[in-house]
Design a protein that fits this description.
By secondary structure, the protein is of the alpha+beta class. Helix content is about 50%, strand content about 20%. A hairpin with a 2-residue loop joins strand 9 and strand 10.
């Protein structure tokens, strides 16, 4: 049964992100072309207002040749055919425990968006509004909804999951035989989506407990524990009335309109949250998912030859050139949040892991060069050995003739023969030690 949502309630909005790959990076243009020509999607031309030009230029969708990411949303007229209902109609889950009661999680599907990156990673974002705005209820609800492959969703008697909805969307967009792989880094049934949430809250001295649950999407069974060190890393005070909580799995922005300019919060800031902050979070989320893709491919032994390591190096350097930014803006509230999110995702540590194969590449190159040098040395030694054999006989003949012709003038035949014998013995001893040194050198290399 569908009920109309009460849009006069305090605003909350959440994005639930589902990653996928669409084959190889070389498929970027063709896959984007499929989305452009699709009946399901319409393109969004984002205006990246606060980021530096060298960042924003890479995401200028009007410049199709150089754009590294295209942004789409499901067409309004296609929602019903795709099972998304209207944006004011409710989906609901099975009853979930909260506050000593069993009650379903109810939410409206406001929008479905898709980001297509040039790295072969794409992200579908389900934009939802939850029925209630109590922070602990919201956290408990998101705890269930982020399990996108297991949490059943009901509407008009039909049953699905958010992951199944994403798969059905891509099946209708790209066809059943398309090379689309969702949650490529996770084992089946363990898929957990990242979540970004905006939530209005009443005035309070601090929101540490609310942020403890919301920034991790914890259920009510998780025990609250104060951790000043963690709070310092994962809580970002934006300004009066606006505070962020960040973790590897989620980010939440709590706003208190009565503590700030209400008009600014509900107009300018709310718009920026759904555009500028969403894009920034998506940019970091994409970097994390690409790292997972690299690490997953490395983990199954894909990059174990010189050729594949060279290709890996090319893809990694191209990714770093297009997406690895330490500084994205000179606006402090964006840059500081960006840095905290980078730390929460442990991107720098993952960079060390994905660079490990390049060290393997260097080692392979070194060993290959050493092996080739040894082969060249071996061939030279063999040639020298053959030349030494020939030189041995040549030296015997030349020395024999020289002694006979030179000493024959003033020595008798017996003395000449003695000198020739001594010379022959010297040559044999010299050749013997030369052969011995060559053989010892060859054994040491082995």
């Amino acid at each position: 049964m569908n009920n109309e949502a009460n849009l006069n309630e305090p605003k909350n909005v959440s994005y639930i992100f589902i990653p996928f790959t669409y084959g190889e990076p070389s498929n970027f243009e063709s896959f984007a072309g499929t989305l452009d020509n699709s009946a399901e999607w319409e393109q969004i031309h984002d205006e990246i207002v606060y980021m530096l030009k060298y960042v924003a230029d890479k995401f200028n969708s009007y410049d199709k040749r150089n754009c590294r990411c295209f942004h789409y949303r499901v067409r309004e007229e296609r929602r019903a055919a795709l099972g998304l209902m209207g944006e004011n109609d409710f989906f609901h889950t099975e009853p979930c425990p909260f506050g000593g009661e069993e009650q379903p999680v109810r939410f409206c599907m406001i929008d479905v968006q898709l980001y297509c990156f040039s790295t072969s990673v794409g992200i579908i974002a389900f934009k939802i509004r939850l029925e209630k705005d109590d922070p602990f209820w919201v956290s408990n609800a998101l705890y269930h909804l982020k399990k996108v492959s297991r949490e059943k969703l009901f509407s008009d008697g039909s049953q699905t999951t958010m992951l199944e909805m994403a798969k059905e969307l891509m099946k209708k967009t790209a066809g059943e035989n398309a090379d689309i792989n969702f949650f490529y880094y996770a084992n089946p049934s363990t898929e957990r989506a990242n979540v970004l949430t905006y939530l209005e809250v009443p005035p309070k001295e601090d929101y540490k407990k609310e942020l403890f649950y919301l920034r991790r999407c914890y259920g009510e069974n998780f025990l609250y524990m104060e951790d000043p060190e963690s709070d310092a890393k994962e809580i970002h005070i934006h300004s009066r009335g606006i505070v962020w909580g960040i973790s590897p799995e989620a980010a939440v922005c709590l706003v208190c309109p009565s503590q700030a300019k209400e008009d600014f919060i509900r107009s300018t800031f709310y718009t920026n949250f759904n555009e500028q902050y969403l894009f920034m979070y998506m940019l970091l989320l994409h970097r994390k998912y690409v790292m997972y893709m690299f690490l997953t491919e490395i983990g199954i032994g894909t990059y174990n030859t010189l050729e594949t390591l060279e290709e890996y190096r090319h893809q990694l350097y191209e990714f770093e050139t297009d997406f690895d930014f330490s500084c994205v803006t000179e606006v402090p509230q964006y840059q500081e949040l960006y840095e905290k999110m980078t730390g929460a995702f442990s991107l720098k540590k993952m960079y060390e892991d994905v660079h490990e194969p390049l060290r393997s590449l260097t080692e392979i190159r070194r060993k290959t060069a050493e092996s080739e040098q040894e082969q060249r040395n071996d061939r030279v030694n063999k040639a020298l050995l053959m030349l030494s054999v020939l030189s041995f006989f040549s030296a015997l003949i030349d020395s024999f003739d020289f002694i006979n012709s030179f000493f024959g003038w003033f020595l008798n035949d017996t003395a000449v023969r003695v000198l020739q014998l001594i010379c022959i013995i010297g040559i044999v001893i010299t050749v013997f030690f030369a052969f011995k040194n060559l053989l010892i050198s060859k054994k040491r290399k082995k």
